[in-house]
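Researcher: Here's the sequence for the chain we discussed earlier.
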Amino acid sequence: MATVHHHLPSEILVVGETPNLDGKVQEWLKHAGHHLGAKIGEWAQVQVAQYFRNSASDFKRACESHKDGMTLRITMTRVPGMEELRLLSRGKAPKEFSLAGLFKGSPAFQVIARPGYTINRLRD
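Model: Thanks. This is the structure I predict for it:
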């Protein structure tokens, strides 16, 4: 969704198995991207709060560094709905498909605190 609203650099493209020569984003992808973005925000908020509750000492230790700033690295795996999005991108709607129920459940998370600013670019 960030690509559609131009929040990401123009060189980042929506990639699918079929060519998208006109560069238009299909309507279902706009809606799915919006819902996924909202769910990522919800999931991340819960996981970061849980990280601070359970790992406050690790965070404090990382803050003792002389580096400027702090980076929280959040990694998600097993994100609900990804297989359904793959099927949709191939033009195959899953049985009993519902956009509202697409991202039910929670992904696996890992939150790591690192001293300093860490920015990983998607492309150089």
